[in-house]
Amino acid sequence: MRILAVYYFVWYCAVSVLIPYTSLYFSEQGYTSTKVGLILSLWAMVSVVAQPVMGIINDRIGNPRTIMILCAVVSPLLGMGFQWTSGIAAVLVLSVFFAWFQSSGGPIGDAIAVEIASQRGFSFGSVRLWGALSYAIGTFATGILYEKYGYDNIFNYYLVFSLLICVVIVFLPSAKLKRSRAPLFGQIGEVMRNKPYIVFIVTSMLMMMSANMNMTFLPLYFKEMNFDKSWIGSAFAIAALIEVPMFWVAVKLSKRMGRYQLLCLASAIYGVQYFMMFAFESVSMTLSLQLLNGVAFAFIAGTSVEVVQSLSSEGTKATQQTLYTAISWGLGGIIGSALGGVLVDGLGAHYLYLILCGLCTIAAVLFFAFRRHQQQVAPTVAA
């Protein structure tokens, strides 16, 4: 449990120095919002393919630590190339290789963590909350650091933390996910015939698409509203800090009200946040509303991974975790980043949040409509 907590702490430190600031990094390099959206949507597009492919490879070779170390080493080295690459064409080519490895390690790590947690009798949320804590610390510190010194060195910091991740991975528990014995296409077919699982990831994609657009374009919202950009890191930190206790709360609420109902509540909370950001043009209000963002995300992250695990068969757990991430975050990110960039250029970041409110409202209705699937999930979890 302790080494998993350290793993999530270091992993999300690495995420905190990079992901929240990529839109500003490319924007500061002179790219328009549409081009920034194109670059980030390509990252998401690559992840849709990379994550399930790497998950399938992991399920077949049964050695997740090797794949995780490979991703942790290769992705920052490729990321360094953005500092010496100019021109949208060259950036897009490099993005394909960078996104392949950067996106694949996390879902495999989640699959290992959930499996170890279930075998050793503790909740996934009890270790995942350390990632929320490190993300809060990291985004707060880097927001101040980047505003003072600029965004040119974000990939250097990412390299440092990625090397630390490699060290921690070596000490992860030796428990392995069960290897798949089915033929490759049989393994894929087994996943695709799992109807409750497919329903879940498609519905999740809609909600995560809005969350992805918020994460990507919140810095540009600050820029358009003429807010002090040094508060960007604080905005992400506020959201991440409240996640720490909310992961614990999510465990209690999912048992009391049901997982689908909790996801419905999370979607509604997101919707309220986005509507308030549309209605009130205030930096203090925007910062306060990040509390809602953190609550909603903790409810999702603390619940969805366990739902996927409960819906996964032996030998496909990593495949289904990575496919869930690829569809919900990846495909949702493709649509969200590309559409969000166009909307920001055409309507402005302000009106983007009204659209995000509508997307979350639809997701909340869908999760409520599919709550009957919780009856299928619960016996599996109990088993």
UniProtKB/TrEMBL annotation:
The chain crosses the membrane at residues 6-26, 38-57, 77-101, 157-175, 196-218, 230-250, 262-280, 292-311, 323-344, 350-370. Its main location: membrane. One of its GO terms (cellular component) is plasma membrane. GO terms for molecular function: lactose binding; lactose:proton symporter activity. Pfam families: MFS_1_like. It is found in: Cell inner membrane. The keyword Ion transport does not apply. Signal peptide: none annotated. Residues 1-375 form the Major facilitator superfamily (MFS) profile domain. Keywords: Cell inner membrane, Cell membrane, Membrane, Transmembrane, Transmembrane helix, Transport. It is a multi-pass membrane protein. The keyword Iron does not apply. SUPFAM superfamilies: MFS general substrate transporter. This is MFS transporter. It comes from Paenibacillus radicis.
